[in-house]
Write a structure and sequence with these properties.
It catalyses: tartrate + NAD(+) = 2-hydroxy-3-oxosuccinate + NADH + H(+); (2R,3R)-tartrate + H(+) = (R)-glycerate + CO2; (2R,3S)-tartrate + NAD(+) = 2-hydroxy-3-oxosuccinate + NADH + H(+); (R)-malate + NAD(+) = pyruvate + CO2 + NADH. The protein is of the alpha/beta class. It is built from eleven helices and twelve strands. It binds 3-isopropylmalic acid and magnesium ion.
């Protein structure tokens, strides 16, 4: 008789659904993860849910408790929905929760893949699957989002507001190194550095210099450097000439929305906020945001949350389960029936989730 040894690797996951459609898509994601765990075996997710976000703010005057970070610190990963509420200023909700976690846990590398999934058409003419396969690495700890700056003389005619973009050699080096390593793992081994050093002659020039220095350590990676405005036209006009991209916090924020739209919809796009050394927990979230206009209607696209869950599994070292999940998502999308309204269909979150569950279980939905 053959004895099959079952090792169970247990990961502690914090789920923070947050605001708007966050709860709907994270709920769907957890359901799919549970099915995957049951089907795949070998690993288990110990999920603790935290009801932080704008409703919490209305009750307690803050987005998460004062010891929020301490309560997340021993988790292996954070599965995050969205923040944003029509009644509370965006900078309050954002800095109170999502950026507090990104910065508090030094999640300096933000990874945003964009590719055409089966059945989904790009709004770009003549672009087939495989023609658009990008990963954008977003610097996630400083730059334009460093939080440096201030307002003085508020309300007076001489009022001043400043946001100072901060680039440190250490901060730029670590994200560049991460991007080169990631480019090395990709079939085309090509890295584009996005910059604006023609107009911004301090931080952005440091950015370019560090990129060039780092390129010397990676002779196997082909590189080029593109101004951010020109990058938008390359994305639209020559998508095949892009592979891995490294960009600042703000530039990558903007380019990744464009990347998501060009690959079908913001509703499918995933992201990972990584502390690559795994000294502190990393956070995984769909990039679409809280979608208040469609919240509660059951029509949010859960694909972004599923793809995000696959990135989380990859980070945890469960690459096989991550692959199985992406296969199921691709299978579920292929015939075009599991398209939510953002993809031009009329499927509900429930229907898409059921189709992915069926694909995971090898049955038809
Ligand atoms: C993103 C989002 C956020 C950002 C918003 C919610 C502030 O657009 O994750 O891309 O700009 O970082
Ligand atoms: Mg954005």
């Amino acid at each position: 008789m053959v004895q099959i040894e079952t090792t169970s690797r247990t990961y502690k996951i914090a789920a923070i659904p947050g605001d708007g459609i966050g709860a709907e898509v994270i709920g769907a994601g957890l359901e799919v993860l549970q099915a995957l765990q049951a089907r795949h075996g070998g690993f288990a997710l110990d999920v603790e849910e935290f009801e932080w976000g704008s409703d919490y703010y209305r009750r307690h005057g803050r987005m998460m408790p004062a010891d929020g970070l301490a309560r997340l610190a021993d988790k292996d990963a954070i599965y995050f929905g969205a923040v944003g509420d029509p009644e509370i200023p965006d900078h309050v909700t954002l800095w109170g929760l999502r950026l507090a976690i990104c910065q508090g846990f030094d999640q300096y590398a933000n990874v945003r893949p964009a590719r055409l999934l089966p059945g989904i058409e790009s709004p770009l003419r003549g672009v087939a699957r495989g023609d658009l396969d990008w990963v954008i690495v977003r610097e996630n700890s400083e730059g334009e989002y460093a939080g440096a700056g201030g307002r003085v003389h508020q309300g007076l005619p001489e009022e001043v507001g400043t946001d100072v973009a901060v680039f440190t050699r250490k901060g730029v080096e670590r994200v560049m190194r991460f991007a080169f390593e990631l480019a090395r793992s990709r079939p085309r081994k090509h890295l584009t550095c996005v910059t604006k050093s023609n107009a911004q002659r301090h931080g952005m020039v440091l950015w370019d210099e560090v990129f060039a220095e780092m390129a010397g350590n990676y002779p196997d990676i082909a590189t080029d450097k593109v101004l951010v405005d020109a990058m938008t036209t390359r994305m639209v006009g020559r998508p095949r000439d892009i592979d891995t991209v490294v960009a600042t916090n703000l530039h990558a924020d903007i380019l990744s929305d464009l990347a998501a739209a060009l690959s079908g919809s913001l509703g499918i796009a995933p992201t990972a906020n990584l502390n690559p050394e795994k000294r502190l927990p990393s956070m995984f979230e769909p990039i679409h945001g809280s979608g208040f206009d469609i919240a509660g209607k059951g029509i949010a696209n859960p694909v972004g949350a599923f793809w995000t869950a696959a990135m989380m599994l990859d980070h945890l070292g469960e690459g096989e389960a991550a692959g199985a999940l992406m296969n199921a998502v691709e299978l579920a999308l292929a015939d075009g029936e599991a398209f939510t309204p953002d993809l031009g269909g009329n499927a509900t979150t429930r229907q898409v989730t059921d189709k992915v569950l069926a694909a995971l279980n090898g049955t038809n939905a």
